[in-house]
Amino acid sequence: MRACLVAGLFLLMIGAAAAESGNISVQVGVTNSPPSVYTMYPAPGNGTITPLQASTVTAYYEFEASDPNGNADLNTTTAACSVTRLTTTRYSGSCAKSVLDAASAKFTCPIVMFYYDTPGLYSAHCQIIDMSAAGASRDANDTLVYNTLTAMALDRSSIDFGNMAVGATSGATNDPVIVYNQGNVAIYNVSMKAYDLNAGSNILLASNFNVTASDVGGTGAAMVNNTYKQVPTVYVNAGSGEYDNVFFWLRIPPSQPVGSYSTSLDWILAVNP
């Protein structure tokens, strides 16, 4: 409804006001940008790893990753590396994060390797996932060297034949000696260095002993004093718990003087002497 008042030349009109503003709803979706792994390498001093006999060694591998949403978006708990050669793959434990800049970080990952792991060149794989479950990974071929280790251990340090009659042949009473492979290559060239035994001025020649991988007497290698002689057919694969047996046989000559014989020098069983 409108009212008018006329007074001379002045006119006043009262009515509805004109609109000068309006409401607008604004929406936008911000999507996650995935991370990227842009470089990877063995940590300094870890390009070549030497295994430890019957033990483990830790190799450290590093990679660098960036995230457009900031380095805080890189989920450290998902950072991981692995190394592989043939059928052997070893995985890292928890990785440590070092901030490089606002968008990037470096991750250092410990990888435990075993004494029996295959020697040679290993390829690597590193990966990470961000807080939105977007992932990134990278591979590198022949990037880490695991050295060869030849190592063995024996389950005992003495051999005893007990009491034997003149002219008799017998195996040791505590046979066999167990040869364990504690390296990462097969053991097959095993030799024994024997020494003559003494009882006062009497000598029991090392040549009366035979050493073999068989529990059948009379076979194997006849020993020679202070000389390495290969023990036939001993073969131990690389791997956890791998072993072979070595047996000792003795023939007492008919003319051997009675006595208690022993050696002041230990016999030596060795690989590739």
Helix count, per DSSP?
Answer: 0
Terminal CA distance reads 120 Å
Estimate the global geometry from the Cα principal axes. rod-shaped
Helix content: under 10%
- What amount of the residues lies in strands? over 45%
Can you tell me the residue ranges where pLDDT is under 50 for at least 5 consecutive residues?
Answer: 1-8
| Oligomer description | single chain
Rounded average pLDDT:
92
Give an overview in words.
By secondary structure, the protein is mainly beta. The chain contains no helices and 22 strands. Strands 12, 13, 14, 18, 19 and 21 form a 6-stranded antiparallel β-sheet that branches. A 5-stranded mixed β-sheet has the order 4-11-10-6-7, with no helix packed on it. It has a 4-stranded antiparallel β-sheet with strand order 3-5-9-8, with no helix packed on it. The N terminus is likely disordered.
